[in-house]
From TrEMBL:
Protein name: N-acetyltransferase GCN5
Pfam family, one: Acetyltransf_1
Gene Ontology molecular function terms on file: acyltransferase activity, transferring groups other than amino-acyl groups
PROSITE patterns associated with the record: GNAT
All residue ranges annotated as the N-acetyltransferase domain in the record: 3-173
Gene3D superfamilies attached to this UniProt entry: 3.40.630.30
Phylogenetic classification of the source organism: Bacteria, Bacillati, Bacillota, Bacilli, Lactobacillales
Keywords: Acyltransferase, Transferase
Family annotation (InterPro entries): Acyl_CoA_acyltransferase, Bact_Acetyltransf, GNAT_dom
Length: 176
């Protein structure tokens, strides 16, 4: 198998929309009321919304591909695109890492994470910041393994359901 990372363009929006909806629902369906999930997916992952995010200066989206097939994606923010909840200065915000269910546990999340680290190094960022749902134990364990620590919390509203995310930060590792 050949794994590659490619930058997402406007031409990729239909694939990104489908992937974003599938991966988010797969991750959070069990803990979210159906009406709240549908409302969230229809707004947060609409073609117009994802196109607007893609076109935001300082935001980039990346696919991880397995043998040419998109299997997951990453969203990064820098500079003015970093959300207001990030308190660290000179930070790269890792806003999303999602992998399609059929491709989980094959190291693709680590591949995307390593790409985010590489981007932070290339952009001379000091900190990587992110938010993770307080009950997403596998993700929290993954980030803890990579030296992230909790620096706060914020509400993440899914439909009408205010859930809580942990805000986490880690120093950007120095290249070897």
């Amino acid at each position: 198998m050949t794994n590659t990372i490619t930058r997402i363009t406007k031409a990729d929006i239909p694939t990104l929309v489908q992937m974003a909806r599938t991966t988010f629902a797969n991750t959070f369906n069990a803990n979210t009321a159906p009406d709240d999930m549908h409302a969230f997916l229809d707004t947060a992952y609409s073609p117009d919304q994802l196109t607007a995010e893609l076109m935001t200066p300082g935001t980039s989206f990346w696919f991880v591909n397995v043998d040419g097939t998109p299997a997951g994606y990453l969203k990064l923010n820098v500079d003015d695109a970093v959300t207001s909840d990030v308190k660290a200065t000179n930070a790269l915000e890792l806003e999303r890492i999602y992998i399609l269910p059929a491709f989980k546990r094959h190291g693709l999340g680590t591949l995307l994470f390593n790409h985010a680290v590489h981007m932070a190094q290339q952009l001379h960022k000091d900190t990587i910041a992110l938010g993770v749902w307080e009950h997403n134990e596998p993700a929290k364990a993954f980030y803890a393994k990579h030296h992230f620590h909790k620096v706060g919390e914020h509400a993440f509203v899914v439909g009408n359901d205010p859930q809580r995310d942990w805000l986490m930060e880690a120093p950007v590792p120095q290249p070897r």
